[in-house]
Every structure is written in structure tokens, then in C-alpha cells.
Amino acid sequence: MAVAITAKDVAALRGQTGAGMMDCKKALQETEGDIQKAIDLLRSRGIAKAEKRSGKSASEGHVGSYIHFNGRVGVLVEVNCETDFVARTDDFQTLVKDLALHIASARPVGVSAADVPVDVVEREKAIFETQVAESGKPEAVRQKIVEGKLKKFFSEQVLLDQPFVKGDKQSVGQLINEVAGKVGENIIVRRFVRFELGEE
Fold first, then answer.
1. 183 φ, ψ (degrees, to nearest 5)
2. Are residues 73 and 106 in the same domain?
3. pLDDT digits (tens, 9 = 90+) for 78-88
4. Does 80 lie in the same domain as 95?
5. Element (DSSP H or E) covering residue 115
6. CA-CA distance, 200 to 191, in Å (whole number)?
7. Is the domain of 68 the same as that of 37?
8. Residues 80 and 107 in one domain
């Protein structure tokens, strides 16, 4: 029986290794949820940094902003790294600006799956269940279809899993990991808020 891997487990592994969300999830699945074994597996594949980053907190960083040219959409995003030195680098500053632009354009509902409000998930799930019920497929199959639709929903709606708007060959999470590898520090999107004129 497969061990259930939660978004919290994935986020914890990502925080300790700097590896991408999907890489972390795969490593946890392969090691049946054992965090230490998953860290070792990622390190052996060269995905995680060899140095131990778990003791380093990402408490520095930058709050970036983006206002669309017509003044109808605005974004604030907090992106954290480990040192003030890296926070001032061009690579980090460019990443923060790109993330603000991406959020304005792609309208994510949360940073990761764990951040998506429960009521939003429940609403989507109810819609999917209604759609599947009308298909007339057996009950056992229906649940799998709903789970698949929810997974696709997260990949479209969650910031780290969305294709990056300035180059959709990589996800936002992969872009962040690429910059993290370049600057040699953990980079974490802490939070963001998106405003659109007339929307609540």
C-alpha cells in the first residue's frame, strides 16, 4: 500500500533541499515518505545541494510589486532568501520582478497546493464530482477521475506548478530553483496578493 504524501511533507523536504516540488514529491514516493532517505536520494541525483541547508532560514529577501500599464491590476509578492547580499543581486531582483509579473498575468490562487483555501478546493471538487456523476461511469472509476481533475486544477492554479509566463518550457518552481542554484541559497515565495480593479 502506497504511503500518502502530503503537501506539508513536500514543502518540508523542499525547505531542506531547495529542490523542486515535483522532484521532492517523487523522492518522497520512492522512499515511502522517509524525509532523510528522500534528502539522500535528491543529493545522490545532484538535485539537492550537498551542503546542509536545513539550518539556514530564508529570512532576508525583497517585496516586489507590479502595476499593469492600465492601472487595473497590481501585485505585491514577498520572496525570501538567506542573506541580504543575495537579496541585492540582479538575479534575485529580476526573479522577484518576474514573479510579480507572472502573478498579475496567471492569477494563481496560492503559492503551493497547501495554500489553496479549503472552500476553493471543495467547490472545485463538487463541480468535478457532478461532471463525473453525469458520465455514468462506475463509482470506483469516478473517484480516480475526480482526483485526476483536482491534480490538474492544482497544476493550473498553484504558483509553483504553473508554466512560467515568459517561457512556458519551465514551471515557476523550476525557475526559482534555477535562480537558487545560481545564487547558492534557498529561495522561497512566502506570500503574494493580487488586486484587480472591481474584484474582491
1. -90, -10
2. yes
3. 999 988 899 99
4. yes
5. none
6. 18
7. no
8. yes
E-strand ranges in the chain read 60-67, 73-81, 188-196
* pLDDT 10s digits, 7-63: 778 877 777 777 777 788 888 888 888 878 888 777 766 666 544 444 456 778 999
- Model's pTM, two decimal places? 0.64
Distance CA(66)–CA(188), nearest Å, equals 19
Cβ atoms of 157 and 106 within 8 Å: the answer is: no
Please state, in angstroms and rounded to a whole number, the distance separating the CA atoms of residues 3 and 1.
7
Q: Are 79 and 64 in contact (CB under 8 A)?
A: yes
Phi, psi torsion values for 51, nearest 5 degrees: -75, 150
The residue out of 39, 55, 71 marking a domain boundary is: 55
CATH number at residue 20: 1.10.8.10
Range of the domain at 129: 118-150
Q: Is 36 exposed, middle or buried (0-12, 13-18, 19+ CB in 10 A)?
A: exposed
- d(C-alpha 26, C-alpha 76), whole Å: 31
Total domain count, the chain: 3
Q: Does the pLDDT value for residue 184 go beyond 50? A: yes
Looking at residue 133, its amino acid is A
